[in-house]
Amino acid sequence: MSTNKKQITDFPVLRDNDYLVTFIPATKTSLVFRVITRANNYTKINYGPLPLAIGETLPTYDGGSVAVTETGTIPPRAYTGTGKSFPYTGTWDANDMFYTNEEYRDRIVHIVGETIPDWLRLGLEYPKGVKQYRYQRDNVITGIDKDFGFGQGAIETVQFPNIRQGWLFGNDTNLPIRTGMTFQYEELIVETPKDPLTIYEILTGQRKAHHIDLPISVQDPSIQIALKKNYGYYGFDTTLIKQKDLAVANYAAQIRGLII
Amino acid sequence: MSNSGELITFRGATDGLALTGTMTLTADLLQSGVASIRIPKGGTLKIWGYRISGAKVKVDVNFKKLIASPDVAIETMSFDPALDSSMHIEKRKPIIIRGIGGRESISIGWAQSIAALSYVNVDIEFSTPA
Prior knowledge:
The structure holds two protein chains of two kinds. In chain A, β4 (about 55-60) and β5 form a beta hairpin. Chain A has one domain. Chain A contains three helices and 17 strands. By secondary structure, chain A is mainly beta. By secondary structure, chain B is mainly beta. Chain B has one domain (about 15-125): Sandwich (Jelly Rolls), CATH 2.60.120. In chain B, β5 (about 55-65) and β6 form a beta hairpin. Helix content of chain B is about 0%, strand content about 55%. The interface of A and B includes residues 70, 118, 119, 153 and 173 of A.
């Protein structure tokens, strides 16, 4: 996952037949997808202000808390203590425009979220409610409310069915900021490649693919349950890639249990 | 997607009553005015330009290392409407101020021989760390 606007210089558009690899550090597994097609070509959402409601109380970097006094405004030195969703009327879940269930397992949403202004701290809970940023195993929990372990300006992520993401924001300046959010996204119609050797070649870099590291450094059971429900597996074991025969056999066994 | 920082024009004014003071700065991205601009930790603030109009005024850009540090003037401009109706300064090389500790800030101060209304627009770019 790229977590800095200067690292995400262009939206990494995926085309038909491109491969997408989403790596889960906590389990050292990767989900591999082939893009069948994209459901849209116009891929920018000017969402508007961040989902911060009047009267909502936010913690501050100086201790204590402060109330939001105007919708979408982040007070000076304040941050979101819990992850936010982006409501949008008419979506499968009107309280979270990216969330769907397993009936949408044939599609994932590849997202780059950008804040206005671009110096706001930005992070993800994956799944929502679980703080995932760590340093040196569990020695230091990092994130937008800490000295490091957050992005600024942009984050690239992937939305799977049945997994809710929480978006975190922080404003370490003294300015009461009228915020905004834009998303560049692709709704990708996908399948899992059915050839274990292809999987092996993708995971070992022999075949070109777009790789995204998901911000999952702590194994949360809900992730595995959701992925199993969506796809019939929760990722190909990347620790096997040094033993090609074993890896290919393992991947072949997993492919037999795939739902898509 | 842009790689450049966020450019914001801040506007301040004298109060027309005091001979010296610190301007309250407003901008489209601000909910309300502020007396100083604190630089995000690890970020950089660049001042690219000024527009000054109104009454005769001396304008100081002041810098503070810490919240309780004294103001240090890092740039001073004098505007006299007898010489020109407004003053426009566009910099080829900006003033750069770094937010090393996250407590650095700038403010805009004024001094006048006769209290009157003067206006200052400041173009400031915020860059986040790479």
